[in-house]
Amino acid sequence: MGALLFSVTARVANRVPSDMMTSGADLTFRRAATYTVAVMGGALVVALLSVAWMSIGSGDCVESMMTCAGGEKYVLVFGPPALLLLGGVGAFVQTYRVWRAGGRWPIWQGAGWMLFVFMLIYASLSAGALTEV
Question: pTM score > 0.70 for this model?
Answer without folding.
Answer: yes
